[in-house]
Amino acid sequence: MCPFVADDEAVGMGGTIAKYVSEGFNIVKAVFSYGESSHPHFQEAVMISKRIEETEKASKFIGIEKTIFLGLRDTKVKADVETSNAMQMVKDLIKEYKPIKIYIPSSIDPHPDHQAVNKTVLCTVDSFRKKYPVYEFEVWNILQGNKPMLFEDITNFYKKKLKYMKYFTSQWQYMYLLWLPVYFRSRQYGKKHGCKLAEKFYKVR
Predict the structure, then answer these.
(1) 42: in domain
(2) Is the pTM above the cut of 0.90?
(3) Are 135 and 150 in contact (CB under 8 A)?
């Protein structure tokens, strides 16, 4: 999976991660940015250190096999992709790990860095002759996409998802804002999928 910052996937697919780990799948997380600008009153080096520390603890808790930071600048992912080897880094990771599924932020997420990650990964995937299944997860989405959808029943993993979200203590103000939307989305998608709680993904490749 390729989140913009290390907590995005906790919001969009934390239950699915826990479910896949329980089923024996190895999860690799390629984080585009440290998110160093989330607290402008702290030095960037301090925030980077904090975010790496909490991410490593969170990954260990949920069972993520490997976490890789690509190191693109917060709020400047689009510009950095154009002037760095970010696409090559993503390509190398795909070659190394040969994923059976790739998860990325949604193209209709209002956050421009999320859109930039989406475009970068899709362009990279499309450069391969082999077809890799790619799914979009939701973070700040307001609009609903008109794309093929996949629902994952996370009823038995919802509590673990919430615990996973709590590991990102530096981002708690954002997590708090998303707490209720995450719950109501899970209930809504659960009803559509015939279960109590679910996460929704858009199949884009």
Answers:
(1) yes
(2) yes
(3) yes
CB atoms within 10 A of CB 197: 23
Domain housing 178: 8-203
Say whether pLDDT at 37 is over 70. no
* Within a domain: 3: no
Show the 3-state SS of the chain.
CCCCCCCHHHHHHHHHHHHHHHCCCCCEEEEEECCCCCCCCCCHHHHHHHHHHHHHHHHHHHCCCEEEEEEECCCCHHHHHHHCCHHHHHHHHHHHHCCCCEEEECCCCCCHHHHHHHHHHHHHHHCCCCCCCEEEECCCCCCCCCCCEEEEECHHHHHHHHHHHHCCHHHHHHHHHHHHHHHHHHHHHHHHHCCCCEEEEEECC
Rounded CA separation 174/153 (Å): 25
Per-residue pLDDT tens digits for 155-178: 999 999 999 999 999 988 888 889
The answer to whether residue 186 is domain-embedded is yes
Q: Tell me the CATH number at 136.
A: 3.40.50.10320
